[in-house]
């Protein structure tokens, strides 16, 4: 194709789609640490508006809108990361050897970061992973969270709760960081948006149950879920890592998942 390299529009492959859904399902317990306080606040406001603590259709609708807003936010930001990745790789494609080396290095770096994140969860060091968030980002999180909490009453009662959920895509989260890096490595905005949406939707069951029925998840059960999350990250990280190794001529078992491959 003339006029520069363009990443192909590819749907999410079954292996990576399943990996993102599993990460989302297991990440729900971690999300409670970040989103739980705000979920508790808006759940309480919903009960006040409905005049009952019992689960009603109104509660279900508002919780669904909140969580759909989160998933859409993740999808949009993932698409942006993939677009930047596609432009980054495309800049090197005029020199095939350099372009291949850049893609291989990116696969190795992204895969290693995701695997290290998984190891952190496996060995019970998820708190250490949380501390990797830069202080400026943490300050932004506090401001955004405070802004959202102060406006819960205005946002919680109607369709605008969708925006309250969308704000969460801007909050620092060690679960989402590796997913955004993976999106960057694909260079495919459409596919990445689908994958990040799947991850966001995967977190809904835990957050929905927390906001409507459970109210809490025991530390022991959360630790178990974190270990399972770590294992899922190991699988997800191996995909770009093996891709990078294959580009370097190292033959390893791999799952066939297309990363950035410009049309000629």
From TrEMBL:
<feature type="transmembrane region" description="Helical">
    <location>
        <begin position="193"/>
        <end position="217"/>
    </location>
</feature>
<feature type="transmembrane region" description="Helical">
    <location>
        <begin position="161"/>
        <end position="181"/>
    </location>
</feature>
<keyword id="KW-1133">Transmembrane helix</keyword>
<feature type="transmembrane region" description="Helical">
    <location>
        <begin position="71"/>
        <end position="92"/>
    </location>
</feature>
<dbReference type="Pfam" id="PF13386">
    <property type="entry name" value="DsbD_2"/>
</dbReference>
<feature type="domain" description="Urease accessory protein UreH-like transmembrane">
    <location>
        <begin position="20"/>
        <end position="238"/>
    </location>
</feature>
<protein>
    <submittedName>
        <fullName>Sulfite exporter TauE/SafE family protein</fullName>
    </submittedName>
</protein>
<dbReference type="InterPro" id="IPR039447">
    <property type="entry name" value="UreH-like_TM_dom"/>
</dbReference>
<keyword id="KW-0472">Membrane</keyword>
<feature type="transmembrane region" description="Helical">
    <location>
        <begin position="229"/>
        <end position="252"/>
    </location>
</feature>
<feature type="transmembrane region" description="Helical">
    <location>
        <begin position="104"/>
        <end position="123"/>
    </location>
</feature>
<feature type="transmembrane region" description="Helical">
    <location>
        <begin position="17"/>
        <end position="39"/>
    </location>
</feature>
<keyword id="KW-0812">Transmembrane</keyword>
